[in-house]
Amino acid sequence: MTGVELLIVALVVAVASCLQGTIGFGLGMLSAPVVALLDPTLLPGSLVLLAGALTVLGVLRDRTAIDFRGTGWALLGRVPGTVAGALLVAALPPRVLALALAATVLAAVGLSALGWRPRPRPATVAVAGAASGLMGTATSIGGPPMALVWHGTSRARMRGTMSAFFLAGAVMSLVALLAVGSLDGRTLRFAAVLLPAMVLGFALSGVVNSRIDKRVVRALGMTASALGAGLVLLQAL
Fold first, then answer.
1. C-alpha span between 10 and 53 (Å, rounded)
2. Per-residue confidence band for 224, with pLDDT thresholds at 50, 70 and 90
3. Using CA atoms, how far apart are residues 207 and 151, in angstroms rounded to an integer?
4. What is the mean pLDDT of residues 7-25?
5. Is residue 34 a contact partner of residue 9, using CB atoms and an 8 Å limit?
6. What is the 3-state secondary structure (H, E, C) of the chain?
7. How far is CA 213 from CA 149, 216, 220, in A?
């Protein structure tokens, strides 16, 4: 990856981290298509590492609003989903994973646009947790299923609860990816280089939270994600 390409990725990671700090998810959804275009072999490990660090910041900021009961049900489903996602990463070539990533993003954007909002019952949250584990481990995009079931909560509660869930989920995903040999020194170095951009984006989300309607931010993020996924799809095909 050239210096210019790395700068572009860092900028996207900063924007995506700001989006996640504002609405509770978005790092993988916005960043993964860009990384997939430039070097799909760095996925999903590099973004799962960044997501883990980002969720630590989110938990610390919104810790008083976390719904621990809901997080527990979601994590119950996350375990089998994570195992399935790790097996997919080990079995499928980067091109197929890129196609899966693009399809995941486009499906999430489509469901959001249609306004589908399942009720957050324990069984529904557990199923969403399983889907999030599968998608998050295989493609680094695990936010959409949880956003669908927790959309009706307050902004702080949604951010805090999703951060707690994604923190535990990121640890699970990293252990699973390590077990199947999908984490290496190159992936770790790439994540470390992007860490300052992630921290900057999260810091900016504090300003955005108080000044911009979350619906505007969400719409911009979804649009950018759909465009990125479309480019990945065209390249993979």
1. 15
2. low
3. 22
4. 92
5. yes
6. CCHHHHHHHHHHHHHHHHHHHHHCCCHHHHHHHHHHHHCHHHCCHHHHHHHHHHHHHHHHHCHHHCCHHHHHHHHHHHHHHHHHHHHHHHHCCHHHHHHHHHHHHHHHHHHHHHCCCCCCCHHHHHHHHHHHHHHHHHHCCCHHHHHHHHCCCCHHHHHHHHHHHHHHHHHHHHHHHHHCCCCCHHHHHHHHHHHHHHHHHHHHHHHHHHHCCHHHHHHHHHHHHHHHHHHHHHHHC
7. 20, 6, 11
Task: Check pLDDT > 80 for residue 161.
Answer: yes
What's the CA gap between 109 and 114, in Å, rounded? 9
Q: Do 169 and 117 meet the contact criterion of CB atoms below 8 Å apart?
A: no
Res 232: pLDDT = 67
Q: pTM of the prediction?
A: 0.81
Among residues of the chain, what percentage have pLDDT more than 70? 94
Q: How confident is the model at residue 144 (pLDDT cuts 50, 70, 90)?
A: confident
Chain-centre distance of CA 25, in angstroms? 6
Q: Which tens digits make up the pLDDT trace of 54-67? A: 999 999 999 898 99
Residue 137: per-residue pLDDT:
83
By the 8 A CB rule, do 150 and 158 touch?
A: yes
CB 152 within 8 A of CB 67: no
